[in-house]
Amino acid sequence: MAAPQYRILCLLRDEGPLSRAEIADRLELPRPRVLAELERLVTGQRVREAGPAASRGGRRSTLVELHPDIRFAGVDLGATSIDVEITDAYLEPVASYSEPADIRRGPKATLHRVDEILAKLHTDGAYGRLSGLGIGVPGPVSFRDGVPVSPPIMPGWDRYPVRELLSREHNCPVVVDNDVNIMAVGERFGGVARATDNLLFVKIGTGIGCGIYLNGAPYRGPDGCAGDIGHVQADPNGPVCSCGNVGCLEALFGGAALARDALVAARSGVSPALAERFAVTNAVTAKDVADGAAEGDVSCIRLIRDGGRRVGSVLAGLVSFINPSMIVIGGGLAGLGHILLAEIRSVVYRRSLPLATGNLPVVLSELGPRAGVVGAAVLASEVAYDEPS
Ligand SMILES: [Zn+2]
């Protein structure tokens, strides 16, 4: 069981201001113990009194709330973007910032840019000091050590001391996780998967990955590689993947594969919509495929359906394997929307065991591009609230 202080702070974060009696009741802790803990938390400027509670009869009790100066930073490093959000103690957004970036520039330049963005947000008044910082990176992470581990698309980042450096720079506890895991954490905290204890969050972006919640906790695996479904073989006769294997899911679908297939369809003229786009911009993107499909272009629709079927057949295997109670689809290609979702659903429902899919929602992410920063801020709050007062 977690320390009482941690449980009190998380309860206030999730429920808002409560009276001392309510806190003791909810956590099933003895009242004197709660009073002693709260006194310590008030002294440490982590909670404060917030005015009278609604009367339950008898003497009116006083609400306590999390300190209004508490701030967390959530940072989501993607392959091609940096997203930052500053939140208050309840994880409500206070300020946010996004810009395109290239993770291949390496850890020094990238983290320096993160520091600059945070310094700007500080100057703008978003925070005085940070109580915790969470950061997601697009590759496997040793959660325990706070370092990326052999990340395939992040040259120079292997075992780079991300947690240690950020923690020193910002003088607060830091947590480092995989970018798909933080999206799963975010969606469970503030999105469509609220309070769902067994959950798969599938990110379909440039690549494909899966965040896993089991029994109410993220499951990362002993090496931080759990959920790396982009490299599950989906077609033994498929193309060679960036990892060197053949027919990986990610080599068949995802932003990079879709752009490749769209280019073929544009050049050959099979897709009039893509050919038209290509003639103007000399390039085609996943968004062009989505737009083409919305206009009814048959090949664009087929590209999305084929991809959805590939993803669905891998997910069907996972459903039979761990029996999740929800699957959330997120990431940039979730923008392909309902054609993609319908295809994934139909394959999952057809291929999984009926018992496992009897009541299984397969839905789009509610937080969209914010899922990562929200999840990073959740992890930041957990590591901060676990620090002794
Ligand atoms: Zn692969």
Could you describe the 3D structure shown?
With 389 residues, the protein is an alpha/beta fold. It has 14 helices and 15 strands. The strands form 4 sheets. Strands 6-5-4-7-10 form a 5-stranded mixed beta sheet. It has a 5-stranded mixed beta sheet with strand order 13-12-11-14-15, sandwiched between helices. Strand 12 (208-214) and strand 13 form a beta hairpin. It is globular and about 75 Å long. 48% of the residues are buried. The model has no long low-confidence stretch (mean pLDDT 93). Zinc ion binds at residues 231, 241, 243, 245, 248, 250-251.
Feature tags:
single chain, about 400 residues, five-stranded mixed beta sheet, binds zinc ion
Distance separating the two termini:
18 Å
SSE string: HEHHEEEEEHEEEHEHEEEHHHHHEHHEH
pLDDT averaged residue by residue: 93
The hetero compounds bound to this protein are:
zinc ion
Taking all Cα atoms into account, the compactness measure Rg is 23 Å
Number-wise, the strands total 15
Shape annotation: globular
Please work out how many helical segments DSSP would assign. 14
Helix content: 40-55%
Structure class: alpha/beta
Strand count, sense and barrel status of the largest sheet are: 5 strands, mixed
- Give the strand line-up of the largest sheet: 6-5-4-7-10
How much strand? 15-25%
Indicate the multimeric state. Answer: single chain
Which runs of at least 5 residues are low in confidence (pLDDT < 50)? none
